[in-house]
Write a structure and sequence with these properties.
Elements lengths: L2 H9 L8 E4 L2 E7 L7 E7 L3 E7 L4 E8 L1 E3 L2 E3 L4 E4 L4 E6 L3 E7 L4 E2 L2
Antiparallel strand pairs: 1-2, 2-3, 3-10, 4-9, 4-11, 5-8, 5-10, 6-7, 6-9
Amino acid sequence: MPETTRELLTSGGWKELAFGPFRDDVTIHWIRSFEDDQPGVALLKYEAGASVPRHRHEGLETILVLDGVQSDEAGDYGRGSYIVNAPGTEHSVWSETGCVVLIQWDRPVKILE
């Protein structure tokens, strides 16, 4: 990740980045898309009340909550929380208040619903 991207993430500068469509009420800013068997890295911005349906992790997923609160069946994760979802695990995700997360997927997830 270039130093300028790191600085944007830690200083709140991500607020100035362009986000595009991902799912209903969830937008994405790709830092690195999936290519040549490399993981995908992105920022996801959830509007208040947004959710992602139940899905299975086909590879390792790591998340750092940069702002707000992200939730799943295991709990609520506020700013600074670091979440690791192992390959083969399943859950759904939502944010009652809205949030922004830095996410890395080894492989795209499989939506189950």
